[in-house]
Amino acid sequence: QVQLVESGGGLVQPGGSLRLSCAASGSIFSIGAMGWHRQAPGKQRELVAFITSGGSTVYAESVKGRFTISRDNPKNTVYLQMNSLKPDDMGVYYCNADVRSSLRGGYVKWWGQGTQVTVSS
Q1: Residue pLDDT tens, the chain, 121 long
Q2: Which of 2, 73, 110, 111 is deepest in the core (most CB within 10 A)?
Q3: Cα separations in angstroms, 109 against 63, 96, 99, 100
């Protein structure tokens, strides 16, 4: 019913930058919070950042000052600008969005398929 598609992942050297995008489509009445999580092999999935419908942001301490989350509400898209990348930033990045598909319905969290970010020299 709702699809989230990430793009922008890839290989980058330490200290480099990447910009991830995630576009939502399908049965969408409104979208609340949107965010990004990541998961490295052998580790738990962790919150990277999220942004509310009003524009308030929360970042993991490990990425604060280096990453910036933003959104384009008319395009149903959330972005993650990643600067000064470190090897510890490697992993699969998943976007998510709290979506209402009708006025009567509640919010349901939907997840993207994930995009790989590799930081290596």
Answers
A1: 999 999 999 999 999 999 999 999 999 999 999 999 999 989 999 999 999 999 999 999 999 999 999 999 999 999 999 999 999 999 999 999 999 999 999 999 999 999 999 999 9
A2: 110
A3: 23, 7, 6, 9
Neighbour tally for 58: CB within 10 Å: 14
Q: What are phi and psi of 36, to 5 degrees?
A: -130, 135
Q: What is the maximum alpha-carbon separation in the chain?
A: 51
Copy the structure tokens of residue 28: 């969408």
Q: Which amino acid type is present at position 55?
A: G
- The CA distance from 81 to 28, in Å, is 25
Contact 101, 28 (CB under 8 A): yes
CA atoms within 13 A on the CB side of 72: 9
Angstrom distances, CA of residue 27 to CA of 8, 49, 96, 98: 24, 25, 15, 12
